Amino acid sequence: MRFSFWPWLSKSWDELSGLVAHVEATGWDGVYVADHFMADDGGGFGAVTDPLLEATATVAALAGETSRVRLGTLVLGMTYRHPAVLANLAATVDHASGGRLLLGVGAGWQQNEHDQYGIALGSVRQRIDRFEEGVQVIAGLHGHPVTSLAGRHYALVDAICEPKPVQNPVPLLIGAKGDRMLGIVARYATAWNMWSTPDQNRERFAVVARHCEAIGRDPVQVSRSTQAIVIVSDSDSFENERAIAEGLAPRPVLVGTPTRIAEQVVAYADAGVDELIVPDFALGVGAQRTDRLDALIEELAPLRS
């Protein structure tokens, strides 16, 4: 397995930059940023009015401040990012990072940011239709000298994207859990991501595998990442941490000492998960957070494959 870090972007730039520098220096494999302009109403990750750094500018800036970690987006919403513009952005960030970008995209879901900005979210069917066309746009622009597409949502005529990415194409991660979206994963994705327990991940990847087999693709060509909220306890008695975990349901939660958490992560490896992403939502702040990250990677590193 690989182990990556997801800092919530409600930090000052100096705090975020220092935190990313720390995880790169201490052996984490990647850093992911979420694409939201505000917290979700009632989502549990802060108030809607809390400041959030913007994802694409953040990942571009981190490309110049890091040298080793993979940089990923988790995930860029197709509803408010035209795929041709996104393809060019991704190519530029891939050059700036020396070929370390993992381009994570999704169909979009968060109602309040669309409402505030006057952007149509659309029905689930409309979002997935638009998303599939958008993925085709990105694949075409990265993979071909010119791309034309006459779709219901996007129309390109002899369109170019130059320079091409260092990685040609940039690896594409799709965040998805529904059956139809998992079919798009099977057709286009290098990697797939969803919040999940080990059992949930196993069951949903079986759907990906069936879609892959139907089109003659080997499912092992799709790597699997997932995330769970991690709550670190300083002892084996963690009643307070359990109460916090219950408040974060239904999101998957790993709770306990770093050793106990590593034992729980084995179940993800056994389910076939390739990468665990650790958000910092419940890791504390300042020195407490970095100390917990250090203790976690020390216990998780032996599980690498």
Draw up the topology in text:
Layout: E1 2-6, H1 13-25, E2 30-33, H2 55-65, E3 70-73, E4 76-77, H3 83-96, E5 101-106, H4 111-117, H5 124-143, E6 147-150, E7 155-159, E8 172-175, H6 179-188, E9 191-195, H7 198-214, E10 223-227, E11 229-232, H8 239-247, E12 253-256, H9 258-271, E13 275-279, H10 286-300
Parallel strand pairs: 1-2, 1-13, 2-3, 3-5, 4-5, 5-8, 8-9, 9-10, 10-13, 11-12
Antiparallel strand pairs: 6-7
Helix pairs in contact: 2-3, 3-5, 5-6, 6-7, 7-9, 9-10
The amount of helix comes to 40-55%
Shape: globular
- Sheet with the most strands, sense and barrel status: 8 strands, parallel, barrel
Strand content: 15-25%
Quaternary status: single chain
Q: Helix/strand/pairing class, anyone? A: alpha/beta
Helix and strand succession? EHEHEEHEHHEEEHEHEEHEHEH
Task: Flag low-confidence runs.
Answer: none
Number of helices: 10
The CA-CA distance between the termini, in Å, is 5 Å
Rg, alpha carbons: 19 Å
Strand order of the largest sheet: 1-2-3-5-8-9-10-13
Could you tell me the number of beta strands? Answer: 13
Q: What is the averaged pLDDT score? A: 94
Write a brief structural summary.
This protein is 43% helix and 19% strand.
Core attributes:
alpha/beta; globular; single chain; two-stranded antiparallel ribbon; 10 helices
Structure in words:
The longest helix is centred in the middle third of the chain and has 20 residues, at 124-143. A hairpin with a 4-residue loop joins strand 6 (147-150) and strand 7 (155-159). The strands form 3 sheets. An 8-stranded parallel barrel has the order 1-2-3-5-8-9-10-13, surrounded by 4 helices. Strands 6-7 form a two-stranded antiparallel ribbon. Strands 11-12 form a two-stranded parallel ribbon. It is globular, with a radius of gyration of 19 Å. It is 43% helix and 19% strand. It is built from 10 helices and 13 strands. The chain has helices at residues 13-25, 55-65, 83-96, 111-117, 124-143, 179-188, 198-214, 239-247, 258-271, 286-300; strands at 2-6, 30-33, 70-73, 76-77, 101-106, 147-150, 155-159, 172-175, 191-195, 223-227, 229-232, 253-256, 275-279. Helix 2 packs parallel to helix 3, helix 3 (83-96) crosses helix 5 (124-143) and helix 6 (179-188) crosses helix 7 (198-214). It has 305 residues and is of the alpha/beta class.
